[in-house]
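Blackboard transcription, Thursday session:
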Amino acid sequence: MAFNSVRYILVQGLVSLKRNVWLSLASILTVAVSLILLGSSIIFLANTSTIAKTFESQVQIAVFLDDKLNDGQVTAIQNRIKNLPGIESVTLTTKEQALWDFQESMSTTSLLEDLGGINPFPDKITIVATDPKLVQGIASQVEKISGVESVRYGQGILEKLLAFTNWLRWIGVAVVAAFAFAALLLISLSIKTNVNSREKEIQIMRLVGASNSFVRWPFIIEGLVVGLIGALIAVAAVGFAYTWLLQYIISSLAFIPVVASQQFLLMVFIIMILGGMLMGTLASVISVRKFLRF
Amino acid sequence: MIKLRNVSKIYPNGARALIGVNLKIAKGEFVFLVGPSGAGKSTLIKLLYREEIATRGQVLINNVNLVRLKNSQIPALRRNMGVIFQDFKLLPNKTVFENVAFALQVIGKNKKEVKESTLTVLDLVGLSSKVNAFPAELSGGEQQRVCVARALVNRPGILIADEPTGNLDVDTAWGIVDLLDKINKYGTTVVMATHALQIVEQMNKRVVRVEGGKIIEDKAEEEVRLGI
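(Written on the board underneath:)
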């Protein structure tokens, strides 16, 4: 397309934005809100899944052994567990090691003497499963082995966490979809108002042989600009909010694993910007096609 | 230049606007299309600039069949064609110059071409002094002249006029018809649908009479002049 046409189309697209300032603003804000929701849910989901993964990898089965077993019996139990299906690793922590570790953590050197010469720690076998879902089955099998005194794992907590994040994920998707739809409607409305107010102009343009794309492009530019401005507002809002939140979490809730990589944020922002431009363009294409029998 | 072969037009509501129409218009002709309201004149005109599509038959312009024309090819057709209407269709918020220049801008002409062609054609229709006026400041006849200018600015081979004098008094109407005649003498084919029988009688041009969707009379220029 010739330079003259490109200039004309750009100017027309921006002029019609100006003509319907309030409708344009409403469209921009709706795009911004829906993209803020989209961006926050992506960030939220990334974080919950990181948290879930961290918890999952921390799910271990602790097997405490009977105090009276000798070394050979302990090794035998260890071997039996190793042969169960779905075992990632089996680590033995002897009672001596446990006492040593505890003494270390207490910064003392005379713990055994303080305890009157009796080591209260049992031998402990730590099992990591290949899949957190197998934990329950493994635990119940291990419980049946003689010489095993008790078996502990984070019973029930993991399941609840996963169900909760799954539920949040669906709510997030629904809310984002609803707002994206609202944004589409508002942009379409704004474009339709412009198409209406320029119906005669469009009629004449077609009459004198303006190409279809020539008629359509100003509206697409308009939608694109609305989407882009909305997206930039959303990116700024989400960017500032998340940076602030990250600083707060890292400084005072350091045990929560957060996603702070620049690359991840950049990806979210790019998705938001592309999403905004897509919404704007889509709304324009739909509303113009309806009006101009092309 | 223009050929209609056995053309029928039936609207979706079942109205039969044209039935088996055959018509040939040569390059450079001036043809009046007459007949009562609802006879099918407007439909015939609309078929020529592809606002409507014939239900049956062929509508050929420069050997291109408009019935088979793709939507994307319409702009090319219309760039070789000027159309004027009874209700002018001017943009009220644009000046005379801008209204005419608009037709060139939207087909991508550069600034210099737009200015030159627009001023030339406004001179041709006698509106050089009203270049910066808005349509509301003009008389009906002047507004129609702007439309003629807009239709001609792209130097089309065909000018189509649908009741161009319908809103004008007799003297003003004559002004427009004289203008169209002048344009015709420069070589543009003119097809004009009209009710103004007085004008038709005095112009000595070919007259095609449409009634009930059919051509019931087609008097050549010679016959009209000789009063046959």
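Lecturer's comment: Chain A has a mean pLDDT of 81.
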